[in-house]
Amino acid sequence: MPTPTSSISKVTEKHSAWVRFTHWLTSVCFLLLAVSGFVILMCHPRLYWGEAGNDLTPALLELPISRNYQHGGWSESVAFFDGADSPVSSSRTYEIFNQNGWARSLHFLAAWLLVGAGSVYLLFGATTRHFRAHLLPKSDEVTIDRFREEFKKHLCLNIRPATGGPQYGLLQKIVYMGVVFVSLPLMVVTGFAMSPAITATFPFLLDVFGGFQSARTVHFFAFAALLIFVMVHVLMIVRSGFKRQMRAMTIGETRRD
Amino acid sequence: MIDNQLITRRRAIIAGLASVGGMVLPGCSRESPPSYGNLLRMGDNLTYAAHRALLPGQKLAREYSRRDISSMPATGTTNPEAEEYQSLYHNKFAGWSLSVEGMVSRPMVFTVAELKRLPSRTQITRHTCEEGWSAIAEWTGVPLSRVLDAVGMLPRARFVSFYSYDDWADSIDLFDALHPQTILAYGMNGRDLAVAHGAPVRLRVERQIGYKSMKFLKRIVVTEEFDDGGENGNIQNGWAWYVGI
What we know:
The complex is a heterodimer of chains A (about 260) and B (about 240). Chain A has ten helices and four strands. Chain A has about 260 residues and is mostly helical. Chain A has one domain (about 15-65, about 95-250): Fumarate Reductase Cytochrome B subunit. A two-stranded antiparallel sheet of chain A has the order 1-2. A two-stranded antiparallel sheet of chain A has the order 3-4. In chain A, helix 2 runs antiparallel to helix 3 (about 100-125) and helix 6 (about 170-195) runs antiparallel to helix 9 (about 210-240). Chain A is elongated and about 75 Å long. Chain B has one domain: Alpha-Beta Complex (Sulfite Oxidase, Chain A, domain 2). Chain B has six helices and eleven strands. In chain B, the strands form two sheets. A five-stranded mixed β-sheet of chain B has the order 3-2-11-6-7. In chain B, strand 6 (about 160-165) and strand 7 form a beta hairpin. Chains A and B meet through helix 2, strand 4, helix 3, helix 7 and helix 9 of A and helix 2, strand 1 and strand 5 of B. Strand 4 of chain A pairs parallel with strand 1 of chain B.
């Protein structure tokens, strides 16, 4: 496929300072949110669908990630109402793992930082040509053949050397747009949907996700998707020239040909 | 003319700075939770300030139908060991009373029967635990605002502190204290509140995480300044004071 002449000059274009800054700020936030979020999940490693979900109701998924996993420390249950299918109450007799005091506060502190970094990024991205010129695939770029070809190359880890600037491939553009416009906003909004104060003012958040526990479950799977993205992203950085990529994303150096 | 304009502008700037100072300074007084120089507490305070600024009004937390009532674990203290509590329990809480004092014109003591005689509110709401689980239950009690009316809360009051039989101390601001769903609950799912869930009376604060809904209430104190509850409070035990999220 012949290279359009216009893109030759773009090869020397480097990552803008604000892209580099928000990239690393977001990376720090991601690390803090991932660690604190995992510690929070360790406290109650059960996922549900709907509004209510706890140790006395069936789980959608149980994760064996702490001593709280399927712990049997419950007293004999007492029914709230007459009848066999009555909801019950039971007292916990087991000392659970719970580090949510610092983990929750750290999670929300990092979330504030992420909202700050995200706002700066979205503001610059929308007012400069970054989104249009670099992230949005060109109309002639979006073909099944092109997608298939790039997918095959990525599977074989046949990654072209880094240019040191925002000259992204089709697959890269699609995935970056998914992270920027779908996954990260979804993390924030499902976070909001878990807040009793925010959902009192904006109850539609509960309806959108089907309840508090559904939002929590979506929050978890959106994180899992982001974690896979980060792992593949780092792998691609290594395959395309780790040293050059790091220089490009920190001091903003481009390829010297 | 030019002089006058300069003075006016200068005055305007000074007035502007003064009003900015007015917004910042309350953060230094004891009218809001201190940060203790702790980065995590600063984040908590930012969340508190943002919620109060961006979530105005007293909209109700979602209420559910009786069909939605779920099983509910009893966690934290499920039976206070204090001798005082045990003797009250053995007398079916006949000797229990709740003292409401502090920045009020008529400090009062309420028995369970007296609380039950006040206008009641029944709400089916979601208890959202910091651990990650949630449960839906029906709560019946007297709105805290009714009790505060009865004791004549003074205009200078800013916070309401709660003390429990399992030795916890906590507080909420007036915005939450006067919310219609903030109740002193004596009934759960149509029955008297069980010991495991905080008998005879517990607090319900529906716009915050579960641990703000203190069980085993003993005493209520209306205050002018923020009180972190000392060693028995959440902050000094490493937990956020405001947990709207």
